Amino acid sequence: MSLTRRSLALALAATSFAGGAAAQTALSPAEQALVDRAVAYLESLGEARGRFIQTDARGRSTTGQLFMKRPGKARFAYDPPSGLLVVSDGGVVSVQDKRLKTFDAYPLSATPLSLFLARSIRLDKGVRVTRVQRLQNGFSITARDGKKETAGEITLQFTDAPLALAGWTVTDAQGRPTRVQLQGLERASGLDKSLFVLKDPRPRNPGRGKV
Predict the structure, then answer these.
(1) pLDDT in tens, 44-93
(2) Which of 111, 116, 9, 11 lies closest to 71 in space, CA to CA?
């Protein structure tokens, strides 16, 4: 993917984290225990909100607000002057750039978001866990989607005390990383349904196909 503002929209939309040629890495009991902890935590995270910092491969950073509602729903609202808005409605991830007046949509299943927004998170089926690493204040899990052919991976970072999702790094087929750091992620309840709806604002022209 080229390093454009649209393609770097949180490294969520058009970035596959697949790797069909990779073999399943044998995990030690300690590593498997960390994977199991992460899965249990993510599946318990019904609704949440917080802030994020996104840093691209060139070191450029943007900030914004995050809302999550599992399964399948998320909203990443970038702070001005970015003009970017990324919304997953449970089936489709939509990316709107108000400054460039563009709108793109991708199946949720084709994005890294599907790894931790799925109703049932399975890191032992379809997804290949290639590395589990202990960090100073937590641990990370690196995975590839074994069903697809394009290269790339996602690394989820967790804190230990308390156990929480701290962020993730998506590395594309060219080895370019985009990092998302979460700040103040907290459980929420009763998030407005409209947060997870994003309609194409462009006027429909006769004959124009769906994005």
Answers:
(1) 888 999 999 999 888 989 999 999 998 899 999 999 988 899 999 998 99
(2) 116
Cβ count near 35 (within 10 Å): 17
Torsion sign over Cα 89, 47, 54, 156: negative
11 close to 170: Cβ distance less than 8 angstroms:
yes
3-state secondary structure the chain: CCCCCCCCCCCCCCCCCECCCCCCCCCCHHHHHHHHHHHHHHHHCCEEEEEEEEECCCCCEEEEEEEEECCCEEEEEECCCCCEEEEEECCEEEEEECCCCEEEEEEHHHCCCHHHHCCCCCCCCCEEEEEEEEECCEEEEEEEECCCCCCCEEEEEEECCCCEEEEEEEECCCCCEEEEEEEEEEECCCCCHHHHCCCCCCCCCCCCCCC
CA–CA dist 137, 155 (Å, integer): 16
Q: Which two tokens stand for residue 43?
A: 């599946």
- Confidence band (pLDDT; 50, 70, 90) for 20? very low
Q: Which two tokens stand for residue 200?
A: 């194409």
